[in-house]
Amino acid sequence: MSSVTIDKAAPTRSVKLGSMSRDRKWALRWSYFFLTLFAIFSLLPPIYMLITSLKSSAEISAATNPWWVFHPTLENYVGLLTSNQFLRFFLNSALVSIFVVTITMLISVPAAFALARMRFWGSATLATGVFLTYLIPDSLLFIPLFKVFAQFGDWTGIQLINRWYVLLFIYPTLTVPFCTWIMIGYFASIPKELDEAAIIDGASWFQTLTRIFIPVALPGLIAATIFAFTVSWAQFLYPLVFTTSTDQLVLPVGIITTLIKGDVFNWGQIMTGALLGAAPPLIIYAFLMDYYIAGLTAGATKG
Amino acid sequence: MADVALQPDTVGTAQPARKRSGLQKALKRKSTAAFLMTLPLIVLIALLVLYPAVYSLHLATLNKSMQRFVGLGNFEFLFKRDTFWLVVKQSCIFAITAVLFKALIGFIVAHFVHNIPAKGQRKWRGMLLVPWVIPPAMSTLAWLWLFDPSYSAFNYTLSFFGIGPIPWTGDADWARFSVILVNVWYGAPFFMIMYLASLKSVPEQLYEAAAIDGANWWQRIWYVTLPMMRNIIAITTLFSLIVTFANFDIVRILTAGGPLDHTHIFATWAFRIGIEGSDIPLGASVSLFMVPILAVAAIFILRDVNKRGNEA
């Protein structure tokens, strides 16, 4: 509570009356109390993942206090990080996410630029269309998409189903509309004088985009990149539908289908895998939280 | 949205026309350049979103082996099944309850974060947003383990208070409670961060004026905060309604629709029928039932987005 006394600079909405500031002090105490409760609620599952991941299977099945690790061991981590299967899932996830982020940015940045700055026939309709596409959920499209890709295999002889790279075609349906949408917002906030001056100086539209818009809107680009990455990393439904062989699976599906054998749950390894799977987005978030939040509030992301 | 494309076409065409081949000139023209820049986007949306969406309407009219046109036969079949009505009911309970609690918790937590000195806010915001950052498939696994009937941490803890083992995912009502709880845990931070952003944009003078007029905190919330936040509350809630209604991972991993199909929502049941049961047309018909509610929410959101664009 020491921060209460040095709170002069913080926004205070109380009028300077004795009782008011006492009220405020209590309000502050209650705020911290409830925030602590909510933080515990928020962090409970990840902490429990960590606790379980440090236990041996003997300790997990013993009826001891589940909230404490009595004999910490790294055997789950060693087990997973030396298993070719798990590394394969990790690699698949990483490949899919990196490619999808690249594809997404290549498609959505020029499109957002054109939609934000170059009025052309149908541009307003298209912008609305992008927004509507962003509202169409994966759970509506997975069945027709599955059939479309199965048919594509029948017609061309190129089998895409059950190949990890089929996801490179499918994830952009989720990431591109969203990234385009937030990039339109960022680009629209750039003063018009900047690109008008560039055009008058003889820059082409493409040069205006690469030399002016991309550097100026870099925070927006970073936010969009983070989102494209987290969406592709976390996607569960599409890989579950489109891939089945263990060497083609991405992390979330891989953990669920291979670590659960029948009714036997190897919880130590499952929690370790889940924690390792949650790590990349968490690490990115730890370093780029402000971009993440800016993108969230700017784009009103899915939630 | 309105400021997206209001720049009149003056600069591009005012370029001096040099003697170049037609193609080069066409490439220099603004509309051509713009078309080329948006072409990949258009192709993607047309081939991988619009076409499948329309195609799913066609699929829904076929029989199981996709050889014969059955018209509305799939829908007729669905209407006669009790499971379908269970799914409708559960989808509505799930989406409405979860969104309500997410909005409520998000609103409360945003106020608490807004209340504390600006210095410490970053730390709290960071911790409270963690559920939203972890891939839901991963965090739901942690919840599944917390809910485990025999070794679960929850039942172990509750036993100290003399509360007997709760069949978290084994009993229909508890399973409903569990999937909603996990969804609220996952989605509340999103509301928190959106409300926090909009709280910060409420001018401080309004509260000072209200305080001078003798308004208590409840009146300040009711007459100042809520009206100022109305737009963002509406849009966030509608967004979340769409996503929650179409949720898949949480229900799939936590209960897989069980016990006895009591927690199936449209997405998970469509998956069970269409992919696992390989009755693609029937699965497509099931997921099409999500369209009306999504469309209604989308219309309201779009109206709001356009309104905001015109004001800006």
Automatic annotation (TrEMBL), chain A:
Superkingdom of source: Bacteria
Similarity comment: family membership: Belongs to the binding-protein-dependent transport system permease family.
GO cellular component: plasma membrane
Bilayer topology: Multi-pass membrane protein
Domain ABC transmembrane type-1: from-to ranges: 90-288
Full protein name: Carbohydrate ABC transporter permease
Residue ranges crossing the lipid bilayer per the database entry: 30-51, 89-113, 120-144, 164-188, 209-230, 272-294
Listed InterPro entries: BP-dep_ABC_trans_perm, MetI-like, MetI-like_sf
Keywords attached to this entry: Cell membrane, Membrane, Transmembrane, Transmembrane helix, Transport
GO aspect biological process, one term: transmembrane transport
Subcellular location: Cell membrane
TrEMBL record, chain B:
One biological process term in Gene Ontology: transmembrane transport
Keywords: Cell membrane, Membrane, Transmembrane, Transmembrane helix, Transport
UniProt keyword annotation of tRNA-binding present: no
Name the record gives this protein: Sugar ABC transporter permease
Record GO cellular component, one term: plasma membrane
Top-level taxon of the source organism: Bacteria
Gene3D superfamilies associated with the record: MetI-like
SUPFAM superfamilies per record: MetI-like (SSF161098)
Membrane disposition: Multi-pass membrane protein
Organism: Bradyrhizobium amphicarpaeae
Pfam family, one: BPD_transp_1
Main localization, broad class: membrane
Transmembrane feature ranges: 33-54, 93-114, 126-146, 174-197, 232-254, 280-302
InterPro entries reported in the protein's UniProt record: MetI-like (IPR000515), MetI-like_sf (IPR035906)
Location in or out of the cell: Cell membrane
Segments forming domain ABC transmembrane type-1: 88-303
Family statement: Belongs to the binding-protein-dependent transport system permease family.
